[in-house]
Design goal:
Layout lengths: L23 H19 L4 E5 L9 E4 L16 H25 L4 H18 L6 H19 L4 H14 L1 E3 H16 L1 E5 L5 E5 L10
Antiparallel strand pairs: 1-2, 1-3, 4-5
Amino acid sequence: MSGKANRAPRLVPARGGVPKKPTKQLLRTAYHEAGHAVAAYTLRLPMQETSLVENEDSLGRMALAPPPASFQPETWYGEDRRMERRIEAHIICALAGPAAEAHWAGRRSHAGAHDDYQKAMYLAGWAVSDSSGEGVRRYVAWLQYRAEALVQGARHWPVIEALAAQLLARRRLGTRQTRAVITEAITAHRGVRVTRDAAGRIRFEAVEAAGAAPTT
């Protein structure tokens, strides 16, 4: 994990608001939830909201939209590759939160990641037939590696930072707001415009720098 990641993001206050200096716990939570959200966006999992509003269960949350009726991992027996990919997407999304938090803080928080790992292990149990549990642990470890690679990569980490900053300033972002922050950050840091085709696949279009000479 890179020590360079451990820095507070620039806060962008909501209209009429003045950002206060966040606590370290709030910063960790912001990066945690931003990691979930950017992974969900990347893996095409519909979101409902991303929030730092504390309740009796947690300091923050990234809520996914209810899955379609066709998503039934408990009835999957390996015949449908699409179901396998969907299970993996949900597991990576669950693990991306603690992975982003750990990348920023420089160390893992086992307490904050407990529910995410429980969800990952539960879903993996439907994807791996192994009564001993060793296969499930290895499967989750592989997807953990993929989640860490996703959040730490140069393509995604600046986007997570931008979303964490907005969460700290506004505390709650709805679906459209979360997606807008992510797409704007992608455009700013990658020099591309984000679109989706008719099938919902993400497309990236190059954006010419202002004042640049047209190409021929």
